[in-house]
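DM from R.C. (forwarded with permission)

"hey, sorry to bug you on a friday — could you get me a structure for this? deadline for the figure draft is monday and I only need the backbone to look sensible"
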Amino acid sequence: MTETNNLVLSMKNIDKRFTGVHALKGVSFDLYEGEIHSLVGENGAGKSTLMKALTGIYPKDSGEILYKGKLLNPKNPKEVLEMGIGIIHQELNMMDHLTVAQNIFIGRESTKMGGLFLDEKKLNRRASELFTRLNMDIDPLEVLGNLTVGKQQMVEIAKAVSHDLQILILDEPTAALTETEINELFTIMRDLADKGVGMIYISHRMDEINRITDRVTVLRDGEYVGTSNTSDVTKEDIINMMVGRVIYEEPKSNSNVPTGAELVLQVDRLNAGRMVRDISFNLRKGEILGFAGLMGAGRTETARAIFGADKIESGKIKINREPVRILSPMDAVSHGIGYLSEDRKRYGLATGLSVTDNAILASYNMYEHGLFIHAKHVEKVTSEFVDKLKIKTPSLDQLLKNLSGGNQQKVVIAKWLIKNSDILIFDEPTRGIDVGAKSEIYTLMNELVKNGKSIIMISSELQEILRMSDRIVVMCEGRITGELSIEDASQEKIMKFATLRNQE
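My reply, with the result:
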């Protein structure tokens, strides 16, 4: 981006209210041609709402939008896309059973014989020309479901660009990408910027913001905080603007587990499918045991086997030194194990139900009163944990889908605390939530272990592993390849074990 670039978008004093929530309070935002502009803020700060107002998903209550100097009153996403404004959502929205080319041009297919038949050859040629223009190495004939998440992300971008975009919005585009795929994405983004496409980049990853963006705008609690050139601000500056306070991310230097703390979980030579091979480890009372490794290492599969979600082929599990048989999640819950899945919306929550319903999802039997649920007791305990975990919600009856990601995660934690689980498995506990909510989750985890709970934490973020763990287990290709005390741990040592393939 240069100083001579034209202003392509100007959002002025955008206001939006929902029932019980003032989501946007006079927010303004500008974007220039060829600029990559980061939009950041805690979950619930208003980022997604602002973009939905821009793309016609939500009608704004007041304010104005100028696109290429003309007033824009978006009615729906299709109209906005046709005008040259596209959005890539965090959760990809394509059809796995169709080919890459069919996904890109769905609804705009090439035809022949007077429109009676699809012209697949022309469709594939158009896709191939598009990929060449974007320097993407993807086969138009490949079935989309066969591609990695990273490649599917590229196809989604190609689909958006095929509409001759002037503005591209990317919402957490790197959440499920490898480092190589992130580098490929950034190369494509810079190429698009060179061609004049303005981009709005939403991400919680501070290092990426410094790497790829020209400017950064911060929102907090639905209000505009400020805009800066990315080169002029540090990560700490941005975080302080986001949360209104300084958040420290220093690694832990010493274990907080008392010497001789009792064993609460012992796993011996556990086998469950291809990704869980001869897994053995112990967990002590009051300990946070970090599980590190690259994607596909088998960490989640190990957690699912311990929780009874996947069938165990062989091996032994002891809880409080007593052998147990875990054949289902119900068995695990009865033995005091709670599991916070990495895919909380699919496995941990019922987003169409209320905060209260979700909080007691695992504990209904504790509040049965004959054929009915004791509503007053349920409301009392839910209210207690909403206050204790500082869950931001207008009411206990609020549908969970209307809460931010960080608050949804806290409701999952509340669910297992109400059940009084002593062993908690946290699988990617801060994925997709902002730095402020992360800090609150970290504080909560530390309070839990101080109160005698024990935590297995699976995380792909090495800084998180080093900040929170008392001890670290590292996996690669379904096996444990190393174990480190926090005093001896470093990113380099973890990565060494994470890439250490076993020879059978």
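R.C.: lifesaver. Residues 179-194 form the longest helix (16 residues).
me: no worries. The two ends are 53 Å apart (CA to CA).
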